[in-house]
Design goal:
Length: 341
């Protein structure tokens, strides 16, 4: 009678078809629209004013902004964005009450005009009878090229996956390395395809980061299966099984632990998302997709492919044993003939 686990291994054509559809559709949509990443900000300049809690308590924030903007008007400067950030203590993660006012200007804004506005603002930000402490700075922020960061991430994924597969090959055999290679490639490209299809908003190098997480999650989960298979296949009880039954029976002993491990990885992502700020939470929650892709490859696709790897290597092993037995038998006959002579 075919068990549920053995039946799941027989469904490998469905897994291959499903992954192929997601990956191919992802490639097409990426070629047409790219990922739904935040638009990259080109080089720009900032005019920053830091002021202490005294200004906040005495409701001077609006006046600080108006005095800075008067200085900009005097130099014919027009800002493109304005934001106020609260200072957070690194010791206790609490707001200190101090603020940082940031104006953004285009990259071609005159440095001379900005410095003149800075000097004027420093004079204007002195409040009589109030201990308002402030400081003004002008900075140039260079835009980050996505492709450079993307290539670095891609190389990191490739190197990490290669090292992991070499380790799996040495530790658990070439069959596990080959099925692991299929799983790593599937986890990586399945994750990229998923983000291209669903258009989930991510930051610039997000898709590559999540692809790397999927590859690492797969390696971790599949190594659990590999460790159990290596242990089980040494048991004489498994010698009577064919490749598909042997892999199926071994998976039954490791599936639960793999699911618990995947759940732990998901819990880590959930906790990080819960305690993080809103901006960081947007980066952590899509990692659930990466963990799920790693689990899918480690528990369904790679084990199904491993059946065929094991079958092929078992056949090679049997042929070697037969060949060795034949040589040994021939040598024994030759030895007997020489003795008789």
């Amino acid at each position: 009678m075919m068990t549920k686990r053995l039946k799941s291994l027989k469904l490998w054509p469905l897994y291959v078809a499903f992954s192929s559809v997601v990956i191919l559709a992802g490639i097409i949509l990426y070629a047409l629209f790219g990922f739904n990443t935040a638009a990259e900000k080109p080089q720009y300049k900032t005019f920053e004013v830091q002021y202490n809690v005294v200004a906040v308590i005495n409701d001077k924030e609006g006046e600080i902004q108006s005095r800075c903007e008067e200085a900009f008007g005097a130099q014919n400067l027009t800002y493109t964005a304005k934001q106020v950030f609260s200072e957070v203590s690194s010791a206790n993660n609490m707001e200190t009450g101090n603020k940082r006012l940031v104006y953004e200007f285009a990259a071609d804004a005159s440095d001379e005009a900005l410095n003149l506005a800075k000097a004027a603002a420093e004079e204007k930000l002195v409040f009589e009878n109030l201990a308002v402490e402030s400081s003004v700075s002008v900075n140039t922020v260079k835009g980050e090229t996505f492709y450079e960061a993307g290539w670095r991430a891609a190389v990191g994924i490739a190197v990490g996956a290669t090292v992991a597969l070499v380790y799996i090959g040495i530790r658990f055999g070439l069959g596990c390395a080959l099925s692991g290679l299929v799983g790593v490639v599937n986890s990586t490209f399945f994750t990229l395809g998923f983000f291209a299809i669903t258009r989930i908003p991510v930051f610039a190098v997000g898709p590559l980061l999540y692809a790397a997480i999927a590859a690492l999650a797969f390696v971790l989960l599949y190594m659990i299966h590999c460790m159990k298979m290596r242990e089980n296949f040494k048991d004489s009880a498994f010698e009577k099984f064919g490749a598909d039954d042997a892999v199926s029976e071994s998976l039954k002993t490791s599936d639960k632990f793999v699911c618990w491990t995947a759940g732990a990885l998901g819990a880590v992502v959930l906790v990080l998302g819960a305690v993080a700020t809103a901006g960081v939470r947007l980066l952590t929650l899509p990692a659930f997709v990466a963990v799920a892709a790693g689990l899918y490859s480690a528990s369904l696709l790679a084990p199904a492919i491993h059946v065929y790897c094991k079958r092929a290597f078992d056949k090679i092993k049997r042929n070697k044993i037969r060949k060795y037995s034949g040589k040994k038998k021939a040598a024994k006959i030759e030895e007997t003939e020489q003795t008789n002579d």
